[in-house]
Design brief:
562 residues; alpha/beta; 6-stranded parallel beta sheet; 17 helices; 25 strands; binds zinc ion
């Protein structure tokens, strides 16, 4: 007699091996059998036609604060996330003394765009050490499983007070920090995170504390992680930097890798039109570290950063002088110019010959997002190249005729990052690259929130663009992060392992539209984003989410590294 049987799904077990039809039986929170079973169960879910996969492991979140008022970690659970790792980018809420609380809040406010009032009200501060933080969390209901990293900024603030944002640490202070990291690792943290990003400041304008660390401090703290023989180091440093800073980042990399001999998650690799070869160089760097024998990894975002605009008020073309001069004309004159064949020829030429850095110039990457007149509805969703082919007109004419027909009110969309598909395919397929840097829990006012990176992967990149098999994509979203972090009993569907599962329809899974809600403590607004086509999120053997609704249970656990 099993607790739960998922009957007749297609099993993607997380290993990347070919999927197959079968049942998954669950007992006592663990996978009891995979294959064909005729045994009875308390509950049987017919999952015929659906994919059954390990739960998504969102390894780069900032849920440190949110879990205290939102134990579901919404909207991540809507997308099949069953475990989250928080404490990334050097930021944690523990260890922390009472007098350091405001400094940590100020860091989250500025770096992670979270409202101060929300953090002031929502964080219960029932802890001093990292272990006490985990213990306090354990007493709360949790929807998802939670793993933590120890944040360098918190450790530094604890050991040095406000001197943490003024100077390098002395020997005694570093010894104190070593002790704090050792305590955290012993309590079950999955590693240490640090941050050298020159763009990261506290709310009061001071650089975040970890940026003041000398190499010796980084070395000694990482050595503690290495000695624990568990977990990893996560290193945030930003992609665009001066040559001097790039050299400094290189020293940090070498130090972290040599001192820990543990996995390192560093570079955030993305394709930007503004620096179209940067990703290649970043991947080369990761591969070189790997050739030297280090477990070096990078991460990437599956979300393309989209720009939406109309020809009424856009600055999207401003890097091309001829476009800019037309776009700065009053509306009536602008429309006249858009009609003029000679102007059109100049505008079209600029699209092929100028070299803007923030804009792709590619007609096939500009999409008609929303038309203003119902009779143009059939153009919605088409890119300008497709539209031009249908109309048998040059793209510039198809583009401007549609806009003029709608009094320049047509909404277009194009991508600023992750828009170059061959580049994206290479980045995503690289064995050293993890998929997902959701920053979930942070940047709450962003209208395209980071939840749902796995859904974007499965819907857009796998189903629509077919850049990777579903098996490989699932492996990258589950088994790979579980293995790198050392979450050894999850991320794979195997008899005996923990029953964290995600059941979805590969044919329909997709993002729902983002929604603005005002559910943060003190009533601040945030954006959430649900999923379509996700049938079940199952955590530790219990159905947490069914068709997008919480079932009322809280089966999540605090995970501890062993
Ligand atoms: Zn982050």
């Amino acid at each position: 007699m099993y607790d739960l049987i998922l009957k007749g799904g297609r099993i993607y077990d997380g290993s990347g091996m070919p999927s197959f039809l079968g049942d998954v039986a669950i007992s006592g929170g663990r996978i009891a059998a995979i294959g064909r079973t005729n045994a009875a169960a308390d509950r049987v879910l017919d999952v015929g036609g659906l994919a059954v996969a390990p739960g998504i492991i969102d390894f780069h979140t900032h849920f440190d604060a949110q879990l205290w008022w939102d134990p579901l970690a919404s909207s991540s659970v809507d997308h099949g996330v069953t475990s989250v790792v928080m404490g990334n980018c050097g930021l944690t809420l523990a260890p922390c003394k009472p007098e350091g609380r405001d400094a940590l809040i100020g860091t989250f406010v500025r770096v992670e765009d979270m409202p101060r009032a929300t953090l002031q009200t929502g964080i219960p501060w029932e802890w001093t050490t990292h272990g006490e933080y985990l213990g306090a969390l354990e007493k709360r209901p949790l929807g998802v499983n939670v793993a933590t990293l120890i944040g360098h900024c918190a450790v530094r603030q604890f050991a040095m007070g406000e001197a943490a944002v003024e100077r390098e640490a002395n020997d005694e202070e570093i010894s104190e920090m070593e002790k704090l990291v050792r305590q955290g690792m012993t309590a079950g943290a999955f590693g240490f995170s640090t941050n050298a990003n020159q763009r990261h400041y506290r709310e009061d304008g001071k650089p975040v504390a970890s940026r003041f660390a000398a190499l010796d401090e980084v070395a000694r703290l990482c050595r503690v992680v290495g000695e624990s023989q568990r977990g990893l180091v996560q290193f945030t440093h930003g992609a665009f930097a001066s040559p001097e800073h790039v050299a400094r980042i290189g020293q940090w990399y070498d130090t972290i890798l040599q001192e820990t001999r543990r996995p390192l998650i560093g570079e955030s690799v993305r394709h930007f039109w503004s620096e179209p070869d940067l990703w290649r160089k970043q991947l080369d760097d990761v591969e070189e570290r790997n050739r030297q024998g280090y477990a070096a990894y990078a991460m990437t975002s599956t979300r393309r950063s989209m720009r939406r605009w109309t020809l009424k008020d856009s600055t999207r073309f401003d890097e091309m002088p001829v476009w800019k001069s037309v776009m700065s004309l009053p509306l009536d004159q602008r429309k006249e110019q858009f009609l003029d064949p000679r102007t059109r020829a100049d505008l079209a030429l600029a699209m092929t010959e100028s070299k803007p850095i923030g804009f792709s110039r590619r007609w096939d990457l500009i999409t008609v997002k929303k038309v203003a007149r119902p009779e143009n509805k059939s153009s919605e969703g088409k890119n300008i190249d497709d539209l031009a082919r249908l109309l048998r007109r040059p793209p510039i004419d198809a583009f401007l005729d549609l806009a003029l027909n709608e009094n320049l009110e047509t909404t277009f969309e194009d991508t600023a990052s992750q828009g170059d598909e061959p580049a994206v395919k290479e980045i995503f397929s690289n064995p050293h690259v993890l998929l997902g840097q959701s920053d979930a829990g942070a940047h709450v006012a962003n209208a395209s929130p980071g939840f749902g990176y796995s859904t974007i992967m499965l819907a857009h990149w796998v189903r629509e663009r077919q850049i990777m098999s579903l098996e490989d994509a699932i492996k990258k979203l589950t088994f790979l992060p579980a293995s790198i972090f050392g979450i050894h009993d999850r991320g794979l569907l195997r008899r005996g392992l923990t029953a964290d599962l995600f059941v979805f329809d590969p044919a329909t899974i997709d993002l729902a539209a983002p929604e603005k809600v005002t559910d943060l403590p003190e009533g601040a607004p945030r954006y959430i984003q649900r999923a379509k086509g996700v049938h079940y999120t199952i955590v530790n053997g219990s159905v947490l989410m069914k068709n997008g609704a919480h079932t009322g249970v809280y089966p999540g656990k605090v995970l501890r590294s062993v």
